[in-house]
Amino acid sequence: MKNILSLLLLVFIVVSCKNETKTTEVSETENAEVAYASFGDKIEADNAIKATEMAERFQSMQVGDSVSTKIVGKVNEVCQAKGCWMRIDLGNDEEVMVKFKDYGFFMPKNIAGKEVIMNGHAYVSEVSVDEQRHYAEDAGKSEEEIAAITEPKRTYSFMADGVLLIEE
Predict the structure, then answer these.
(1) Nearest-angstrom CA–CA distance, 137 and 99
(2) Which of 73, 160, 85 is nearest to 113 (CA)?
(3) Which are the contacts of 65, defined by CB distance < 8 A and separation ≥ 6?
């Protein structure tokens, strides 16, 4: 009996003296707050759909159709004259042309490749040859590229009333 009690006491001492360190991993996204630069109307970052989801909606829309939405996507290009428009990647080599409500605000010219969240109206339009050439000129395209524009184009468009630029 003494041996059993001694053995239990020894096991108890070994278990209680064990140095066990428990660590809890917390992902950076749980505690890290995302910083935004805000342009135009104040908007919230929640409930935005991905640009690829919007691309699917655009395909079913007709010229003149419009829908209020909030989109998150990557900037492909910005007007280099003054930041008065930008193009957002929709995936599958498609883009949405974004303008800003009442030219009430402009975006920085150096944000290509960055993510934005935009609130406003998505619509399908037909862009005239003159307007396409104007945008090509603003984007710094060559004279040959501008002259190659000869037909109106069905485009996906977005009129943003507010934009959040995701700062890294």
Answers:
(1) 16
(2) 73
(3) 123, 124
E strands within the chain? Answer: 35-40, 49-50, 66-78, 85-91, 94-100, 115-127, 153-167
> Cα-Cα-Cα-Cα dihedral of 88, 67, 50, 82, to 10°?
20
For 75, the 3-state DSSP assignment is strand
Contact present, 13 and 35 (Cβ < 8 Å): no
Global pTM value: 0.70
CB 111 within 8 A of CB 139: no
Angle at 100 between CA 98 and CA 104, to 5 degrees: 165
- Is the Cβ–Cβ distance between 40 and 105 less than 8 Å? yes
Quick one: which H or E segment has residue 151?
A: none
Q: pLDDT digits over 98-125, tens only?
A: 999 999 999 999 999 999 999 999 999 8
Query: Which DSSP state fits 102?
Result: G
Model pLDDT for residues 69-104, shown as the tens digit of each residue: 999 999 999 999 999 999 999 998 999 999 999 999
Query: For residues 157 and 125, is the Cβ–Cβ distance under 8 A?
Result: yes
